[in-house]
């Protein structure tokens, strides 16, 4: 047992507080910036206390405005697009991975080993590597600027398949046999036993994949050209005009904060399950 | 309820000349309501045989019949059987009630009847107050009872038990053994019980199958197996301490093995064999004397309070003439 001494406690807290400040200060600055007008921010020194234009800025960001240097599309729509694609990616990934892991672990079919290794090998090929051919395929299928185009190429997941496979391998064989004795067919066993047993892993994956889907940048940048299909992350980028254009930093900052909100909420709400899924071995 | 018959049952893994045969033609006719124990050392094929009856392993040859139906090609759920597993195999995310009801739910039994059947089984097994809990909140013995309850509610024609007591501690094991006996008396369902523990086998069985190396060595009542073992394997496997098997004892013909149980060696007789005592164990009511006759080892059971031999002593023992067993040395079979 480590002895608790006062100096040690103070030092530990000092380091932690320092860490929090380092992480939190930029966020605070973004918040401060989003409560001022664009002119106030660009003056030196930049204000460090919140201003009085909070509602105006956020209203302008969420519902769009008439003119600006970069994109002026409403953020509310972008958030919706982001939310839908993140949800489709997350739910799709979990569903497909669960089923493919189920097939790989519990069924004997020709070239089963090959199938597993093919899935496994794709782990080594991130989206960025195959982005050219993927773009070609999606554009040929006419899926640019659609939810399908935003989500389908990102749905298959070797990581999640692998995770579920490892979990299914730890489920005792006797449980499978007991289910057979009870007359449960394969899909029944999947639905009534395997999925409920994997619920903590599913929750952990949900958090990870939702954030993954929400934060997608490179792919939506290619796959969307029309303002009403921008995810919010792309929206931020499009708001910043290049060159000498006068950027409305207050609105950019507001949008950035808005974009952070849903992933943060997901983490906070699912924290308990998330941690359980990573550490628990409830069997 | 139903009779169960195994007709020349064979299990092979693999095909062709490389096939590995693990069960070599088992024949057994089990009457309706009998309690049969399959006993043998690990790897003798006893669990495989049970799993073939259950339908969890394919039958490579022969026939298994339950009642008047041959079940070789039926799914486990269609065989009218229920199985209790060694590790209970309860669904961890379901309550005990749901665990017991799951099979009935799949069979689309009406809700009221499920409730009634589970309640009845819970009453028999004294599980009533535990039905709403999850398996992980129960002790090993209670989980075992839930597993039995799951078997009972299905109202099967045959019960299969796969070493159900081996995960329990000694005291609980004895208690559960009595409960299983009581249960069998009350329900009278044909049962097949696999164990490696000969005490369990002797106490539970109405008749027992002794297996070794995939071969059924003997099928008979515990008395028959104890008093007239069919082979040297059965003789040494059943009974504790095991039967003495002697090849060069006085009176032994060449090619024959003389078997005599430690408890059938008389130490008060006037004449007999002189043996050298090597070590002595006190078990409470009795002493086990490990002795040497010529160059063969001999175990003698001595009642506590009669004799107190020391290592190095010479002891005169006489086998009871009506309790001698003769076996063929080459085949190991009883003569």
Largest pleated sheet of chain B: 6 strands, mixed
Mean pLDDT of chain B: 91
Structural class of chain A: mainly alpha
Task: Compute the number of structural domains of chain B.
Answer: 2
CATH class of the largest domain in chain B: Alpha Beta
- So, CATH architecture of the largest domain in chain B? 3-Layer(aba) Sandwich
Number of strands of chain A: 0
Account of the protein in words:
The complex is a heterodimer of chains A (283) and B (335). With 283 residues, chain A is an all-alpha fold. The mean pLDDT of chain A is 86. Chain A has 2 domains: 6-63; 75-279, Orthogonal Bundle (MetI-like fold). Chain A has helices at residues 6-34, 38-42, 54-63, 75-106, 112-122, 131-140, 147-155, 158-170, 173-181, 186-197, 199-214, 218-223, 232-239, 249-279. Chain A is globular and about 75 Å long. Chain A contains 14 helices and no strands. In chain A, helix 5 crosses helix 8 (158-170). Chain B is of the alpha+beta class and 335 residues long. Chain B has 8 helices and 18 strands. Chain B has helices at residues 46-54, 96-106, 111-124, 140-153, 170-187, 198-204, 222-227, 232-237; strands at 4-13, 20-30, 35-39, 61-66, 69-70, 81-84, 158-162, 190-195, 207-212, 215-220, 244-246, 256-260, 265-266, 273-282, 286-293, 296-303, 314-319, 325-328. In chain B, the strands form 4 sheets. Chain B has a 6-stranded mixed beta sheet, sandwiched between helices. Chain B has a 5-stranded antiparallel beta sheet with strand order 13-17-14-15-16, with no helix packed on it. In chain B, strand 15 (286-293) and strand 16 (296-303) form a beta hairpin. In chain B, helix 2 (96-106) packs across helix 3, helix 2 (96-106) runs parallel beside helix 4 and helix 3 crosses helix 4. Chain B is globular. Chain B starts with a strand and ends in a 7-residue tail after the last strand.
